[in-house]
Write a structure and sequence with these properties.
The chain has 315 residues and is mainly α. Helices cover 80% and strands 0% of the residues. The two termini are 26 Å apart. Residues 37-64 are annotated as: Disordered.
């Protein structure tokens, strides 16, 4: 085990994840400039051939596409931060404590708890569900636009049924791996449990960010997981900033809002990054979740494909 190589990969992953917060503005500018260059040679001909409808529709479509990347990022920030997060902060951290202070401690067990329950039932549950749907659409749009700019059209080499099975398998693995990361935090030896949970959360956040690019490149789920396990120093460093930020909050709702605000930048970071090939022994943290997921698939829709061999580089 080469400590120097591991340290470099950790630092490079950490740096690449932070770099995405600046890269998004450069990427949006490059997209606009490239579209303008494509339109400029044919502008005269388009005016002569289509003086009315053609010219107007082309300009309108171009303008919509140019602003799509930043608009999606702003939508994520406004909805998750300006609507969801602020409502949580106002009601649970300002309104309820002030209510308890004004009415006295005896009223807390009755009115305050009822209001909190009613608030979470009527407001938090619907808006949480809506945020999951909208975030899924917005994240995919951001990832597709960034991928098309840097690599061109996505590569789909399988049938849609296999693609759907791959997506379902990926969702199950991510959910089980999240439960696994939470479970190991309850190991009686606090330091060991915290480190293992922290490392696995870093790898999970890296999988979230890179999966959009790897999926568009045609990588299967087992190949994606093997690549993370084989080059774990880089991906632990890449997922470290997001893990530190989300674990700072006691409320999982607040952590989820912060994650949704920052994750678009992580998608850009993953799309632009070139992972360091460490060559260290793989960390088989995904092995338990893969085993359980294979059992679930075997008992429901049949046996999934066997895991691919560990990949040594992105192609």
């Amino acid at each position: 085990m080469d400590i120097k190589n591991i340290s470099y990969a950790l630092f490079k992953g950490f740096y690449d994840s932070i770099k995405g917060m600046l890269a998004v503005f450069i990427l949006d500018k490059e997209i606009k400039e490239r579209k303008l260059k494509r339109q400029s040679p044919t502008r005269t001909n388009s005016i002569r051939q289509k003086p009315f409808d053609g010219k107007d529709s082309t300009k309108k479509q171009s303008k919509d596409e140019d602003s799509k990347l930043m608009s999606r990022i702003l939508q994520c920030a406004v909805f998750n931060g300006g609507v969801f997060l602020l409502s949580i902060v106002f009601f649970e951290y300002l309104f309820i404590p002030m209510w308890v202070k004004d009415t006295g401690e005896g009223s807390w067990s009755r009115t305050a708890i009822f209001l909190l329950f009613l608030y979470r039932l009527i407001w938090i549950t619907p808006i949480f569900t809506l945020s999951k749907i909208l975030n899924t659409i917005w994240f995919q749009d951001i990832a597709d636009l960034a991928y098309r700019h840097s690599r061109g059209r996505p590569v789909y080499t399988k049938k849609w049924s296999l693609i759907g099975a791959d997506c379902l398998f990926s969702i199950i693995i991510q959910l089980l791996f999240l439960l696994q990361a939470v479970a190991v935090s309850y190991i009686p030896i606090y330091v060991v449990g915290y480190i293992l949970s922290f490392v696995q959360m870093c790898m999970l956040y890296s999988l979230y960010a890179f999966e959009y690019k790897w999926f568009n490149m045609g990588w299967e789920i087992h190949r994606r997981l093997s690549f993370i396990e084989a080059n774990w120093p880089y991906f632990i460093g890449f997922g470290m900033p997001m893990t530190l930020i989300t674990q700072f909050w006691d409320s999982w709702m607040v952590s989820g809002c912060v994650f949704s605000i920052l994750f678009p930048f992580y998608i850009i970071s993953g799309n632009e990054a070139s992972p360091v090939i460490s060559g260290e022994l793989p960390l088989r943290f995904f092995a338990p979740t893969i085993f359980v997921s294979n059992c679930i698939f075997s008992c429901t829709i049949g046996s999934p494909q066997k895991p691919a061999k560990t990949q040594t580089a992105e192609r």
